[in-house]
Structure formats: C-alpha cells, structure tokens
Amino acid sequence: MAIREGKWRCPYCAVVNRGAQMACIGCGATRDADVRFFLEDDAAEVTDEALVARGRTGADWLCTFCGASNPPPLDHCRNCGAEKGAAPSRAVRDAPPAPLFPPARPPTAPAPPGRLRPWAVALLLVAVAFVAAAAYLGLRRTEETLTVAGFEWERRIAVEAWRTVREQAWEGRVPSAARIVSRRQEVHHTERDQVGTRRVKAGHRDLGNGFFEDVYSDEPVYRERPVYRTRVAYDVQRWVPDRTVRASGRDQAARWPEPALRPGEREASRAEKLVVVLQGKKTYRMELPEARWNALQPGQSVSAVIRGGWSVLELHP
C-alpha cells in the first residue's frame, strides 16, 4: 500500500510544514501533542526508500515531560533528553477518502435591514402593499341583489360497446375466456449475480508520524442477469368506451338525450351541468344541483354572496 507524506500546521506561527519535519521551519517550535497531521488531495506517493522506511517505523511517541514528538527508534527525547519509558504514542487513525466534490458553501447571510438603500425599502413596501391588496380583493365577500337572466344546461350519456380487444399479459395471468394469439420470450426482470470482487481505495490511514498510508477494501462485483418469461398476446371480449351522446340548451327544459342503443351496447354513465345566468353589475354564471336549478324562475331577484367580484358563492331567495 502506498505511503504518502502529509503536512502539519504549526500551532504557534501557523506555518505549514512537511510531515517529515520534526520542528517548524517558521519559528523552530518542536511539534508536540497539539499538532494534527493532514493529507492534501493531490499528495503524491513517496518513492524515496528512506522516507518510505521512516513512514513504516510506526507512530511517534510523545515525551511525558516536554510533549515533543519523537520517532520510535529514539530511546530519549530529542528535545529534552528524557527517557522514553512508558510514553504514549500518537493515535493511528483511518480517515475516509476526500469527497469528489467540495461541500457546498453555506448561503451568505442577507444584509441587515438597516443597510438597505432607501429606494430598496420603498420598492419592498410597494410590493408588500400590492400583494396584500390583491389578496384582499380576491378573497373579500360582498352581497349583491341579482336577477335570474337565463339558464344553460348540458347532459351527457357515455355508451360502451361489447368488443374484442387484444391485450398482453405474462403467462399465468391470462383470463380464462381469452383466445391465445401468440407467445414469445421476453425479459421479465433482471437479477444481480456476484462474479467476483475488486479492490477500491477506501481512504487513508494517519500513521501518527507525518505520513499516511492508502487503505483499500474489497467490494463485490455484480453482473446483471436477465430473467425471461413467456409473454402472451390474446383476444378477449370486454366492455370498452365507444361514444358519448349529448343534449344541451339555453332554457329550463333540461332533458336526457336518447342514446339509441344498438345490439352490443350499454349505458356506462350519465353526467349533467346545470347553470343559471345571473345579471347584476356584471353577468355571472353559477352551476347548481337540479332541484335548486329548477326552483328558480326567469326574472326572479335573488341575494348573492360574491367572492372577489367575479364568482357567486351562495344564493338566497
């Protein structure tokens, strides 16, 4: 596994040093327990045999008297001369690989209101006032006396026909009354089979001495395998939409159209739309249920609740 040289930032003068350096090149301070090693994304693999050997000697030990870092081969602290004894070593830690894309920068905080220019404040107030006025006008309710000026209606009957249709289904789901037309093999779904493993870089390991080691792991390799089943085409008799019969008028004599059903046809559904035309300061149209629609008379005055000046919500005699 590749060895890469890291770096460390001096906690006293902030100068960045190579991982192999035991003292800061900026201020001369010995690297101590407060130093944290880091690996740059583009750090190259170490090829110098001496540096590779140094990286593999193990984690530095920290002097219990002065806190300085020392390579494992040393028996006495290079800074104060104290014996190694049972001095603790730096931790060896695994770290995940660097992300392919840098994290998104946090959004910039908006400028405080006090820093807005006067024209921006005025524009904001005008926009707020406009939105508030539009909401008020669109939701406000008013009452107005209206006159029944006319009626409109439309009634529809949907007709279905008993016909032979061609469909497809997987074998085992074909209706019992169907007539098979053809069969063919098609991909029903795919399954994944593991065909081996591959080694991938999983991150790097801080060796605790200014050097890092690449960490690899084995991940499975899969192959998609198609699973075939029999696809069946068949003919079957079903009720299917055929036509719609309509009747409409501008009076109060609403009637249902005559569907004139032929052999092999049936009614599927009925629908209607009954509208009263109301005249006031402007003309309104309101859809009503049949009983309420039939109860109105041409020229009748009604009290109406109007929303936003464009639609009638309620009618009262």
How would you characterize the overall build of this protein?
With 317 residues, this protein is mainly beta. The chain contains three helices and 14 strands. It has a domain at 143-159 and 243-257 and 266-316. Strands 1, 7, 8, 9, 10, 11, 12, 13 and 14 form a nine-stranded antiparallel β-sheet that branches. Strands 3-2-4 form a three-stranded antiparallel β-sheet, with no helix packed on it. The chain has a two-stranded antiparallel ribbon with strand order 5-6. A hairpin with a 3-residue loop joins strand 11 and strand 12. The termini are far apart. The model is unreliable at 98-109 (pLDDT under 50).
Short characterization:
The protein is mainly beta. 11% of the residues lie in helices and 47% in strands.
Record field, number of beta strands: 14
**What is the gyration radius calculated from CA atoms?**
42 Å
User: End-to-end distance, in Å?
Assistant: 91 Å
Q: Overall mean pLDDT score? A: 89
> Helical element count?
3
Biggest β-sheet, characterized? 9 strands, antiparallel
SSE pattern, N- to C-terminal: EEEEHEEEHEEEEEHEE
What fraction of the residues are assigned to beta strands by DSSP? over 45%
Oligomer: single chain
Based on secondary structure, the structural category is: mainly beta
Low-confidence stretches: 98-109
Secondary structure: helix percent: 10-25%
Rough shape?
elongated
